[in-house]
TrEMBL record:
<dbReference type="InterPro" id="IPR006181">
    <property type="entry name" value="D-amino_acid_oxidase_CS"/>
</dbReference>
<dbReference type="GO" id="GO:0071949">
    <property type="term" value="F:FAD binding"/>
</dbReference>
<feature type="binding site">
    <location>
        <position position="331"/>
    </location>
    <ligand>
        <name>D-dopa</name>
    </ligand>
</feature>
<feature type="binding site">
    <location>
        <position position="303"/>
    </location>
    <ligand>
        <name>D-dopa</name>
    </ligand>
</feature>
<dbReference type="GO" id="GO:0005737">
    <property type="term" value="C:cytoplasm"/>
</dbReference>
<feature type="domain" description="FAD dependent oxidoreductase">
    <location>
        <begin position="4"/>
        <end position="347"/>
    </location>
</feature>
<dbReference type="GO" id="GO:0019478">
    <property type="term" value="P:D-amino acid catabolic process"/>
</dbReference>
<dbReference type="InterPro" id="IPR023209">
    <property type="entry name" value="DAO"/>
</dbReference>
<dbReference type="Pfam" id="PF01266">
    <property type="entry name" value="DAO"/>
</dbReference>
<protein>
    <submittedName>
        <fullName>FAD dependent oxidoreductase</fullName>
    </submittedName>
</protein>
<keyword id="KW-0274">FAD</keyword>
<comment type="similarity">
    <text>Belongs to the DAMOX/DASOX family.</text>
</comment>
<keyword id="KW-0285">Flavoprotein</keyword>
<feature type="binding site">
    <location>
        <position position="193"/>
    </location>
    <ligand>
        <name>FAD</name>
    </ligand>
</feature>
<keyword id="KW-0560">Oxidoreductase</keyword>
<dbReference type="GO" id="GO:0003884">
    <property type="term" value="F:D-amino-acid oxidase activity"/>
</dbReference>
<dbReference type="InterPro" id="IPR006076">
    <property type="entry name" value="FAD-dep_OxRdtase"/>
</dbReference>
Length: 359
């Protein structure tokens, strides 16, 4: 009967807690400074689009492939999760493909991507379907998530399985040992602290840095979801339009600015975001330009970028407790959430088998 403490209540921590709690023998506690309902620069998950836009290579696609199966199931069977199917278009410019990308990883924009067999109705766009200035593109049935609904839904699913959530501010990962709701010392700590792993004592991963994302959330509706391979406003600025499920508004983006910690939205960037969006899709604002946009909120989130990619591995803390790491997802935390959580469950099972504990 292992005692598990999950540090972090973003999409990665909550999804991991949910999968671990499906085995009723596990006693799972989530401890975090921020919980769903909070909007803070330290808490990335509420600010996400969020969607399913594959960003991994074919060799590292397991996390996204496995997550897609579960998200598709939720769309079809669990409408209260706040996810909907949305036609998705990827637009490419040859000049972006010919240089090393400093924004989204190249696999998203490959002309023969591995994910073409994962999505329903994947197809390359005809020349006549392309927007002026773009050389090629593709279309498929993807999804968009209303984070304001989905994160509380995850909390509800965890509570239903007996998970206990507690507010706490950790200065060291070792402090989580004593934070189980059972009163017992944790056998396993899951580190899902995202960007917090940069400064968290006992982890202090120097490979972590923020990838600042500035967005504008508007009431205007616009489909299909559209993402482009680049903009004319510099490598740190990107262009995407994503309509959230269940009246969640439409996210206009954005930026992918490595190393930038600024929490306050830049008004000049905001104007460029809106201008790019209405230039690509004039119907978004009824042909009225940015004056036709009904703004709900300007937002900034700090994606947990990790040089070298996501860290999913076990580490022995001491003779009593192990740590299983699950952080460094950069901009694909939602679309890799279930696959990565499955990876954590596998490591937890491995640790308990080594201890002679049968789950």
């Amino acid at each position: 009967m292992p005692t598990i403490v999950v540090a972090g209540a973003g999409v990665s921590g909550l999804t991991t807690a949910l999968l671990l709690s499906k085995n009723k023998a596990n006693k799972v506690t989530v401890v975090a400074k921020h919980m769903p309902g909070d909007y803070d620069i330290e808490y990335a998950s509420p600010w996400a689009g969020a969607n399913m836009l594959p960003m991994s290579t074919a060799q590292e696609s397991r996390w996204e492939r496995r997550t897609w199966l579960e998200l598709k199931r939720l769309v079809e069977n669990v409408p209260e999760a706040g996810i909907h199917i949305q036609k998705t278009r990827i637009l490419r410019r040859n000049k972006d493909l010919d240089k090393a990308s400093k924004t989204f990883p190249d696999p998203l924009f490959h002309k023969n991507p591995w994910y073409k067999d994962m999505f329903e109705n994947y197809r390359e766009l005809d020349t006549k379907e392309l927007v002026a200035g773009y050389d090629s593109g593709c279309e498929f049935k993807g999804i968009c998530i209303n984070t304001a609904i989905y994160l509380p839904w995850l909390v509800g699913q965890c509570l239903q399985n007996g998970v206990v959530l507690k507010r706490a501010v950790l200065s060291s990962i070792s402090e989580a040992k004593a934070m189980s709701h059972t009163g017992a010392t944790a056998d396993i700590i899951v580190n899902a602290t995202g960007l917090g792993s940069l400064k968290l004592g006992g982890v202090e991963d120097a490979n972590m840095m923020p990838a600042r994302g500035q967005t504008v959330l508007v009431r205007n509706e616009c489909t299909p979801m559209t993402v482009t391979s680049g903009t004319e406003d510099g490598d740190a600025e990107v262009l995407y339009i994503m309509q959230r499920a269940a009246g969640g508004g439409t996210i206009l983006g954005g930026t992918y600015d490595l190393g930038n910690w600024e929490s306050v939205p830049d008004p000049n960037i905001a104007v460029r975001i809106m201008q790019r969006a209405v230039a690509l899709r004039p119907d978004l604002a009824g042909g009225k330009g940015i004056e036709g946009l009904s703004v709900i909120r300007h937002g900034v989130g700090l994606r947990p970028y990790r040089k070298g990619g996501v860290r999913i591995e076990e580490e022995k803390l001491d003779d009593e407790t192990w740590i299983v790491h699950n952080y460094g997802h950069s901009g694909w935390g939602y679309q890799g959430s279930y696959g990565c959580a499955e990876g954590v469950v596998e490591l937890v099972n491995k640790i308990d088998r080594a201890k002679g504990v049968k789950l």
